[in-house]
Amino acid sequence: MSIIHKTTMSPTKVELLTAWLPGQPWYAAAQRAPELSRAGGFRLDDPEGEVGIEFMVVRDDAGDRPAWYHVPMTYRAAPLDGAEQALIGTTEHGVLGQRWIYDGAHDPVLVGQLFALLQGRAEPQAQSVSDTPDPSVIAEVAGAGFEVPAGAAEASAVANGPDGTRLLLGDGVALQVTRVLRPESGAQTAGVRGHVSAGWRLSEDDETRGRFAVLYDTVS
To answer: Where is the Maltokinase N-terminal cap domain (predicted)?
Structure first.
């Protein structure tokens, strides 16, 4: 299980995201500097114990109305080869030293564990407490015996757009990482094979939940 250290990070994750978010095609308040606060999320464990994996939700109050963004992130002790375009930034961790923080949709360790979650082989963990499962995170796949396409963690293409980040996985399957979070509507979309849903805070007194990632067929 991953250990959550109660220590400092300089710059903080929110500070790094404040600089990084405006450059993303799914960021809505493009003409204004983000005004971010943490609003939820969860973690997954790396089986090798080397890479930190977090699915963070931040609230942005820079626009005319609040927006909630989902940013999956990985934390590494050294740069990830070939992932320069996915680097969010570097930070000095009070216990672990320098860390390279990546947009996790481009990191095969996070993608592999996200599929493990969909297959029931990974258990979601609380965002800020060590060794504590988070049962509020739900992974569902339609039909029995879902198999991850070979090489899925190394997606054949990663496309960022206004609707989020799409990973083409081969065998007619894609994974859509939601970036702008919205409450679940309950409606089923044709071609959807599965999803991961979790909650986040709308305000101090109000919470909701929605889909953080959706697995779907690219061909019918």
So the answer is: 20-107
